[in-house]
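Pasting as-is:
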Amino acid sequence: MAQDNSPDQARLERLERRLQALEDAEAIRNLKARYAALCDKQYDADGIAMLFTEDAVWESPGLVRFEGREAIRGFSRGASGIFSFAIHYSLNGHIEVEGDQARARWYLFMPCTLAAGNQRCGAPASITRLTHECMAFGCSATSGRSH
């Protein structure tokens, strides 16, 4: 007599989805760490650009908005002229994964040499799985003056 394995199959599928979400969240953390490392390496424009999708948006509301990988590359090329020294610390990361989409948010603490005042920044991001091994940002960074 054959046994009904559907409860076991459903449990296995739930576990697989949970495991995939955990693996995706870790891949997103690594993606964010690569981005920070490239920024801290005098804003490696080509390396940074390759982390973003072709239609990504990098935005600091009220300050700047860059649409598309090439615009982000151009900004990154100029960033080393804005920041002569910077170290990017991403804090309080929060990642929500739903299938092949994710939303992530970090606060940015960035000790730097900057011409104009102190700023606090947060970095919400939308992440899309491009392939099983590769993810890329669609980013909207928020920023505001510290008081």
